[in-house]
Specification:
The chain is an alpha/beta fold and 467 residues long. The chain has 20 helices and nine strands. The protein binds nicotinamide 8-bromo-adenine dinucleotide phosphate.
Length: 467
């Protein structure tokens, strides 16, 4: 047998990716640790080649072999790599398409290089549907090995504006890093939409039907995105009893690891990703429902009621969401830029953001503007410093301010939107209060301070106790 590629891991993602590859004319071998799953898949889908051992799987592939792992991240990937090393030949390629932590990918890349095996760490986004009909793909690793699978990846990926949503990122862990950034932005986007929904409901006193129409309308303009689209869809659904399903769903949201990784990384690199952090914290808060119920009976809301006309509120919400969304993307992408400097990835963001235009959860019309803004601006420190986006922010920042202030007065938590406003205000402050922090540090720890009118580091005897 001389199959083009093999997929190990036949859960939701692996099976659908294998079928997507087969639909695109590739001959695909499949294997799964629990072999009854291979039987199930083989009985349903004749176009896949079932195999029942790692050896027969590997022998079914043409050389250099391309082995695509789509298994649970962490230990399973390392265990499979160990088994594969035994049976693969020099020059063969192992591809990890799961949600691996990028530091594991860097480690595995180095380890496999020593063994003569090539490795690609590939971010895949789009869930089950994306995997089956076109995901966004973020390949990282050895570029010449990528050449072996480039056509397969581009053909199975989503297409947007005539281009595949798949572009080579850079070496070692860069593809998984970009996927992690994608997930961080996804958390932020979901939270901000949720805050707007809550505001329209509680401050605007709008019912689901009215809110649904707002999101549907927004999806025709600059806010057009997958998450706005599905929100409009969700708001339509009624149960058999005729009540909105959304109103019956418990307000507790869980999470997996990638959001947490973004925060850990941001702390390590000293980058402010406050909107993403707020989104993750909001999920933590959501999960302590019983504590929240207790608190709601004890702590008064002390609101200052605000009266805003419904139409005006919708307009404020639209402009605010747009500005806050810019900040969320700016923060995530800034982290990517800093990581690129640290790991010498030399990435081109104007190209890489195009990956997100289709197939993935954060796909949005304004990614075209982001790509163009980076291209037009050359080297910029931050997305919000590109001419297109600072003009957009300047024309709508007042609305974000009004919306956040209305929410604060009404006692509605809009922690992600507030974080976006706080970020812009911090970023545009040329003269902050950090002089006091320098002074405090010097006071209690003799950490010294720098001055506005002199070069060097100084210490002052604040208490008069030092000799
Ligand atoms: P899961 O993440 O649930 O993993 C299940 C697969 O891992 C099964 O095929 C299972 O084999 C295999 N596996 C495990 Br668990 N331990 C193994 C081991 N020690 N050796 C070999 N195989 C082992 O599947 P998924 O939801 O399809 O996701 C696959 C990857 O894609 C994950 O990294 C996930 O984070 C990522 N991802 C998922 C989505 C999504 O929407 N689900 C989206 C994007 C990325 P078994 O049948 O023998 O237990």
């Amino acid at each position: 047998m001389n199959n083009d590629i093999g997929v190990i891991g036949l859960s939701v993602m692996g099976t659908n990716l294998a079928l997507n590859m087969a639909d695109n004319g590739y001959k695909v071998s499949v294997f799964n640790r629990t072999t009854s799953v291979v039987d199930e898949v083989a009985s349903k889908y004749e176009k896949l080649t079932p195999t029942y051992s790692i050896e027969s799987f590997v022998n079914s592939l043409k050389k250099p072999r391309a082995v695509f792992l789509m298994v649970k991240s962490g230990k399973p990937v390392d265990l499979l790599i160990e088994q594969l090393i035994e049976v693969l030949d020099e020059g063969d390629i192992i591809i990890d398409g799961g949600n691996s932590f990028y530091k594991d990918t860097i480690r595995r890349d180095k380890y496999l290089k020593e063994k003569g095996i090539n490795f690609l760490g590939v971010g895949v986004s789009g869930g089950e549907e994306g995997a089956r009909f076109g995901p966004a793909i973020m390949p990282g690793g050895d570029e010449s090995s990528y050449g072996r699978v480039k056509d397969i990846f581009e053909n199975i990926s989503a297409k947007a504006y005539g281009e595949p949503c798949c572009k080579f990122v850079s070496k070692d862990g860069s593809g998984h890093y970009l996927k992690m950034i994608h997930n961080g932005i996804e958390y932020a986007d979901m939270q901000m939409i949720t805050e707007i929904y809550t505001l329209l409901k509680h401050v605007g006193k709008m019912d689901n039907d009215e809110i649904q129409k707002v999101f549907e309308e927004w999806n025709k303009g600059e806010l057009e995105s997958y998450l706005i689209e599905i929100t409009a869809e969700i708001l339509k659904v009624k149960t058999d009893e005729g009540v909105y399903l959304l109103d019956k769903i418990l307000d507790t949201a869980s999470q997996k690891g990638t959001g947490k990784w973004v925060n850990m990384e941001a702390l390590e690199l000293g980058i402010d990703v406050s909107v993403i952090t707020a989104a993750i914290n909001a999920r933590f808060m959501s999960s302590i429902k019983s504590e929240r119920i207790k608190a709601s009976n004890i702590i008064d809301s002390n609101v200052n009621s605000v009266s805003i006309d419904k139409e005006a509120l919708v307009e404020l919400a639209k402009n605010s969401l747009y500005v806050a969304k810019i900040v969320a993307y700016a923060q995530g992408l800034k982290l990517m830029v800093e990581a690129s400097k640290k790991y010498d990835w030399n990435i081109d963001l104007s190209e890489l953001v195009k990956i997100f235009r289709g197939g993935c959860i954060i796909r949005a019309r304004f990614l075209n503007d982001i790509s163009k803004a980076f291209k037009d601006s050359g080297e910029v420190d931050n997305l919000i410093m590109t001419e297109f986006f600072y003009n957009e922010i300047n024309s709508r920042l007042k609305d974000l301010r009004k919306l956040v202030s209305a929410s604060v007065n009404e006692g509605i938590p809009v922690t992600a939107m507030s974080a976006a406003l706080g970020y812009i205000d911090s970023y545009r402050t040329s003269d902050s209060g950090a002089n006091l922090i320098q002074a405090q540090r010097d006071y209690f720890g003799a950490h010294t301070f720098e001055m506005t009118d002199k070069e060097g580091h100084f210490h002052y005897d604040w208490t008069g106790n030092n000799e």
